[in-house]
């Protein structure tokens, strides 16, 4: 019987097993607390750990104790000199008690919320749990990585089929020269000399010396083998991972003048979650950031989230930029293409037709999935003008009329706390294979 002892140190002297057991038991409450905490954090702090609070009821454990009712019980009350068994006790006169009515207690007991600290890894793992990029297996591959085998030098062990004869013989020759192993020609010359001396019968002293040299040479030949195991070399092959199903995620965001700071904040939070999700879940996913006003440009992450720029609203410029990047760097036959767009729904009237044509002819045919997130003023659904009745925005109406064949999904948000549920809904594991939805 084998005994395995885990001697890994617990972090910071705390019980890792107990911590993991607690997180599993209170998982629902912890995930709800993580969701609430993410709605209150700044964009730069979204991927940090920290304190979270859960209700005390969520951490209670079942316990066994004696029941206060049932069974037969005998009580011994010492010091009773007034009453006998069966006596009736008079009710105390009204107002004779020592209670204080509704007056608050100075030392009342209570129970605050349970607070504890989550590490960054725990926070992000809980935050992104059950999320996967939809329909990633475009090529029907079960794994994201495949392995390529390349020559990687030599090894001292391996299959006979990989034996490198040239390297083995080179090592053998170098070892024999270094150890001064007699060669075949040297042994042959000694034997020839001995034969000549024996036939001539002269120089007996040299004959004995030659015989001793031959015996020593033969012993050295036996002690120093021609090929030793230390000489053997095999061709070594190393496995290097390569992307079996490459994916690229396009992040499109409207930063025009019609987007208020609150709307931009919602969009930035959505993309921050998306970027965290992609960078943690997949090793071989490229992310392309495209921001647009009446002009569009591919930018880096810092510029995408934090650069200040305003202007008009022409959505087709972002789609044209995305189509250009796809054509130059991401052939649809080799890459799985995903896109997510955030906007307030406004667009130039003259641009709606062009936007629809670009979506149907260029963008959606190349995409595995396209998510559109429409953001609105806080406390008011997108598409509701100030003081007016409900209406659909130009971009929402344009996208709604497109027959995307299950590729396009549309959602609306107005508050920070709605970002997390919408994000989970758009990128849930079971999203693959479902038809595209249009929802407010």
Automatic annotation (TrEMBL):
Q: Which domain of life is it from?
A: Bacteria
Identify the InterPro entries for this entry: UPF0229
Checking PANTHER family in the record gives: UPF0229 PROTEIN YEAH (PTHR30510:SF2)
Family assignment from sequence similarity: Belongs to the UPF0229 family.
**Name assigned to this protein:** UPF0229 protein C0V82_15755
């Amino acid at each position: 019987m084998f005994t395995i002892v885990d001697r890994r140190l617990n972090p910071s002297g705390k019980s890792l097993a107990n911590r993991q057991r607690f997180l599993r038991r209170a998982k629902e409450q912890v995930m709800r607390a993580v969701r609430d905490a993410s709605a209150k954090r700044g964009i730069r702090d979204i991927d940090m750990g920290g304190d979270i609070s859960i209700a005390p009821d969520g951490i209670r454990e079942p316990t066994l104790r004696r029941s206060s009712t049932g069974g037969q019980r005998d009580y011994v009350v010492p010091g009773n000199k007034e009453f006998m068994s069966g006596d009736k006790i008079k009710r105390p006169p009204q107002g004779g008690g020592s209670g204080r009515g509704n007056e608050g207690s100075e030392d009342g007991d209570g129970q605050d919320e349970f607070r504890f600290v989550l590490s960054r890894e725990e926070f992000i793992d809980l935050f992104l749990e059950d999320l996967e990029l939809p329909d990633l297996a475009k090529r029907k591959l079960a794994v994201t990585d495949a392995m390529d085998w390349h020559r990687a030098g030599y090894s001292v062990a391996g299959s006979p089929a990989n034996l490198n004869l040239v390297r083995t013989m080179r090592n053998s020759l170098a070892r024999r020269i270094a150890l001064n192993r007699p060669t075949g020609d040297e042994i042959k010359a000694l034997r020839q000399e001995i034969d000549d001396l024996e036939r001539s019968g002269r120089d007996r002293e040299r004959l004995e010396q030659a015989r001793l040299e031959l015996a020593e040479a033969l012993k050295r030949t036996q002690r120093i083998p021609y090929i030793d195991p230390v000489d053997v070399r095999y061709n070594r092959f190393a496995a290097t991972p390569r992307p079996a199903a490459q994916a690229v995620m396009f992040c499109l965001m409207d930063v025009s003048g019609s987007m208020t700071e609150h709307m931009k904040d919602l969009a930035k939070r959505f993309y921050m979650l998306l970027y965290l999700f992609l960078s943690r879940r997949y090793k071989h996913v490229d992310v392309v950031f495209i921001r647009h006003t009446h002009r569009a440009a591919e930018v880096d992450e810092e510029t995408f989230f934090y650069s200040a720029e305003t202007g008009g609203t022409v959505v087709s410029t972002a789609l044209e930029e995305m189509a250009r990047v796809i054509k130059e760097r991401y052939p649809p036959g080799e890459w799985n293409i995903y896109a997510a767009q955030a906007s307030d729904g406004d667009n130039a009237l003259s641009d709606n037709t062009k936007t629809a044509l670009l979506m149907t002819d260029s963008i959606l045919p190349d995409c595995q999935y396209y998510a559109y997130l429409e953001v609105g003023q806080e406390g008011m659904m997108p598409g509701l003008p100030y003081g007016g009745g409900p209406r659909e925005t130009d971009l929402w109406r344009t996208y709604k009329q497109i027959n995307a064949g299950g590729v396009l999904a549309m959602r609306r948000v107005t508050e920070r706390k709605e970002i997390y549920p919408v994000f989970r809904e758009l990128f849930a594991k079971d999203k693959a294979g479902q038809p595209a939805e249009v929802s407010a």
